[in-house]
Amino acid sequence: MVQLAPRTAQRLSPARWLSPLKQSPLSLVESLATPHAVDSYLALVNPMLTVRRMRAVVTEVQHPTADSVTLTLKPTRQWKGFEAGQFVQLGVVVDGVRHTRCYSPACSQYRGDGRIVLTIKAHPEGIVSNHLQRHARPGLVLDLGAADGTFTLPQRRPGKVLLVSGGSGITPVLSMLHTLCDEGYTGDVVFLHYAYTANDVPHRDELLALAERHDNVRVVLAYTDQQVGGDLHGFFGKAHLEAVAPWWAGAETFLCGPPGLMRSVRDFYEGAGLAAKLHVEEFAPAPVALPDGEVSGAITFARSGVTAENSGSSLLEQAEAAGLTPEYGCRMGICFSCTAVKKSGCTTNVLTGAVDTDPDREIQLCISVPNGDVALDI
Ligand SMILES: Cc1cc2nc3c(=O)[nH]c(=O)nc-3n(C[C@H](O)[C@H](O)[C@H](O)COP(=O)(O)OP(=O)(O)OC[C@H]3O[C@@H](n4cnc5c(N)ncnc54)[C@H](O)[C@@H]3O)c2cc1C
Predict the structure, then answer these.
(1) Fold match between domain 55-144 and domain 160-281
(2) Ligand 1 pocket member 141 (CB < 6 A)
(3) Collapsing DSSP states into helix, strand and coil, what is residue 238?
(4) Cβ of 260 below 6 Å from ligand 1
(5) In this structure, what DSSP letter does residue 247 have?
(6) Segment (H or E) for 102
(7) Which of 33, 207, 326, 344 is the most buried (most CB within 10 A)?
(8) What are the residue boundaries of the structural domains of the chain, listed by start?
(9) Which residue has the higher pLDDT, 76 or 285?
(10) Residue 274 phi, psi (nearest 5)
(11) At 295, is the pLDDT very low, low, confident or very high (cuts 50, 70, 90)?
(12) Using one digit for the tens of pLDDT, what is the confidence trace for 40-57?
């Protein structure tokens, strides 16, 4: 039984007091729980008992490589599933501060038990990835967002599929491979994965088992720092592509990996005039291009009482450079974790080029650069 503090009841508006019977049982309970969400009370009993918020409990933890962790998560009932290639947002509390990060499930979208598998590579200095790699245990409850993203297979499956990944970028394309296999897809699939060495390939046995079970699936492991073992050595290039998928020009290619690999593959497809055949997912943000011409003005972080000279970089980076720690997630405009109110000034959205001069507008700090003086409510 949840006990409500007396002041809680005083905050209810008269309309909500007078017409309790017109409300659904859930909204009535929510009214009574105001100003806290019902889920905040339920979390005291069991964090997996939620009305609105989606959460997930870690049911299994594995360390497939020295610097990564694979988590199996069981979501609460609000989970509606995902499409192979999409990502979810994970809310993780580290040292009392909640952080949000994006992770792409690595399992089939058809997984029978409704659980999702995430593989997370620990980045040097990375807050969330290191925390989960070191401390995640079965029973840990995390906040979970609905699946999102457009990096997915076309509804009408292509005749041939080339999946290219490197490092932690293996996850969304592995999900695509599992999903195609579960569908009984019969077209040719090549899964070309780049890693430093054999010891750096998460899900290696799983990949080899898929290739073993499906005649149309070929798994090619390319090692950049290991000259023996594996199928290919060195970095991506035309020779690799011709060796493993000579039909690549007629296939749809899905790519996710570190910036160097992404650049090489993109350049290659653009050079071949086949950029439309290449579908990409970025895990790390591209550097924000500084505006042409002179950078001027000052950024005022009103709530923190800090003012700094405009350096021209994103407002998120400028806030961090000024010693502030605003919340962020993807740093590339996907997750909206860094949204804040711009009180005044002019900003440019670096993704869309849209210029915003209105006061009291919510903007995404990670993809907004200031044009002159800007004041933010952080
Ligand atoms: C759509 C999407 C899906 C993703 N899926 C996965 C996934 O399946 N598995 C996975 O391991 N990661 C994935 N990521 C990356 C993940 O969201 C985090 O960025 C990563 O775990 C680092 O977070 P952190 O809190 O440890 O690092 P932070 O504390 O945020 O950053 C610490 C340092 O690491 C650098 N850094 C942050 N992220 C990266 C990165 N991705 N690559 C290189 N340097 C980085 C930062 O610039 C900073 O210097 C995905 C990202 C996106 C946008």
Answers:
(1) no
(2) no
(3) helix
(4) no
(5) T
(6) strand 97-103
(7) 207
(8) 6-36, 55-144, 160-281, 298-376
(9) 76
(10) -125, 30
(11) confident
(12) 766 766 777 676 689 999
Close Cβ partners of 63 (under 8 Å, ≥ 6 residues apart): 69, 70, 133
Tokens at 72, concatenated: 């199996």
Express each pLDDT in 99-121 by its tens digit: 999 999 999 999 999 999 999 99
Which amino acid residue places its CA nearest to atom 11 of ligand 1? 120
Per the CB < 8 A criterion, the answer to whether 271 and 217 are in contact is no
CA of 166 to the centre of ligand 1 (A): 14
pTM above 0.90, yes or no: no
Report the C-alpha gap between 368 and 349 in whole angstroms.
5
- CATH number for 160-281 (one of 3.30.9.10, 3.40.50.80, 1.10.1740.110, 3.40.710.10): it is 3.40.50.80
DSSP reduced 3-state for 84: coil
- Atom 39, ligand 1: residue with shortest CA distance: 284
Q: For 340-375, write each residue's pLDDT tens digit.
A: 999 999 999 998 889 999 999 999 999 999 999 999
If one looks up domain 298-376 in CATH, what number appears?
Answer: 3.10.20.30
What is the 102 CA–ligand 1 centroid distance (Å)? 8
Assess whether the C-beta atom of 71 lies below 6 angstroms from ligand 1: no
Q: What is the CATH number of domain 55-144?
A: 2.40.30.10
Closest residue by CA, ligand 1 atom 38 = 284
pLDDT at 117: 98
Tell me, in angstroms, the distance from the centre of ligand 1 to residue 346's CA.
29
Q: How far is the CA of 377 from the centre of ligand 1 (A)?
A: 26
The pLDDT value recorded for residue 158 is: 97
Closest ligand 1 atom number to CA of residue 284: 41
